[in-house]
Amino acid sequence: MLTTFQKTRVRLTDVIAPSFYGAHRDVVEGGHAYYRLSGGRGSTKSSFVSIEIILGMMRDAQKGKLTNAAVFRRYKESLRDSVYEQLVWAIYMLGVSRFWRQTVSPLRLTYIPTGQVVLFHGADKVKKAKSIKVSSGYIKYLWFEELDEFEGSEKIRSIQQSIIRGGEGFTVFYSYNPPKSQRSWVNDPAQWDRPDTICHHSTYLTAPRAWLGEQFISDAEHLKATKPEAYEHEYLGKVTGTGAEVFLNLTNRRITDTEISAFDRVRRGIDWGYATDPFHYAVCHYDKTRRRLYIFHEIHQARLSNRRAAQEIQRENVLNREIVADSAEPKSIAEMYGYGLRVVGARKGPDSVNYGVKWLSELEEIVIDAERCPNTWREFYGYELQCDANGNFRAEYPDKQNHSIDAVRYALQDEITNTKVR
């Protein structure tokens, strides 16, 4: 693979590791819009992104397209010593330094022949993204470095919505070392389940040894021998977990209408909302033989009146099957009964919360359709034990961000307590 710019000739195999050749071809061909690049130390993912941005902007210029780039870190103080220097490295490695102007106040890289720019921003204040403008062309390339430092997908989405407009063929890179926690938002597979996204994982083992140096290899091998779990996380980029995750039996997949039509043990539950807390209605099917739970419908909304909730429920529960609700709200149960719904209060006993959550966590599998039930997936997936002041896990399960979990517990109370099903 060779590329030529103004008599500058560069062999791309000298700047892109073999594990990224396929991704490079995909970027050039415009195969996808989003590239999630995870990996451990020395995986060269940041080097790959920086090469693609500089290469892409210059290639676009040759085609008469004035494209620009915006690069984000969670905190603006991190920009100069990380992504800025990384892109300067790419310019140097491509042998095109004479065509690029580097400025640090403001932090910017400018392609001299056309005026195209690479802008650098911290995500401290999302609203500032709306004011990001370029004098010519549009921002085609976005790079979110150290993605796991961002608070969540909402912030990323807000920035993208402000920038991805007025052009075509956008290319967005997300690069990061996966956090230990299986419940970190960047490790959530539901975040990346879309056809215009490529998920790529690399490690130092896929990079040329000479690029890393013998000291880097020696340090990695020493950690592998002395602390194998730390090695797997730091150098192989594996999600090793923190031990706090409650539900290790989750599967996110589409539950088809055909499957739902065959379900014969459908159960329904309600967790009442309090002030700003959301009302949650859950519909699920329990396969007792295989100890497999399917959750395929939800109503999840804050400040939802009981009357409006009843109307929403009646659209789903057309045969008016029984619904088990939190018994702490007898007035709400009576009101729902007045609207014609068969709502009964859940039976609560000593340690019923801990027992119910433990029962759910020990099922063979909990299948959640995250497209139909995004809030249910978010709460089950993110549910973790809390630590005390000494860093030890508390014995009880936390009572927060668990509205869907409570609703499912109520729905399955007969199964959980092993009493006769109504």
Could you explain the architecture of this structure?
With 422 residues, this protein is α/β, with parallel strands linked by helices. The protein folds into 2 domains: 2-224, Rossmann fold (3-Layer(aba) Sandwich); 250-417, 2-Layer Sandwich (Nucleotidyltransferase, domain 5), CATH 3.30.420. It has helices spanning 21-29, 45-62, 80-93, 153-163, 209-212, 214-226, 228-234, 257-262, 306-316, 330-338, 352-361, 374-382, 403-411, 413-417; strands at 2-5, 8-11, 34-39, 67-73, 100-104, 107-111, 116-122, 138-145, 171-176, 197-202, 250-252, 266-271, 278-287, 292-302, 323-325, 343-345, 365-368. The strands form 3 sheets. It has an 8-stranded mixed β-sheet, sandwiched between helices. It has a 7-stranded mixed β-sheet with strand order 11-17-14-13-12-15-16, with helices on both faces. A two-stranded antiparallel ribbon has the order 1-2. Helix 2 (45-62) crosses helix 3 and helix 6 (214-226) packs across helix 7 (228-234). The chain is elongated. It starts with a strand and ends in a 5-residue tail after the last helix. 35% of the residues are buried. The mean pLDDT is 92.
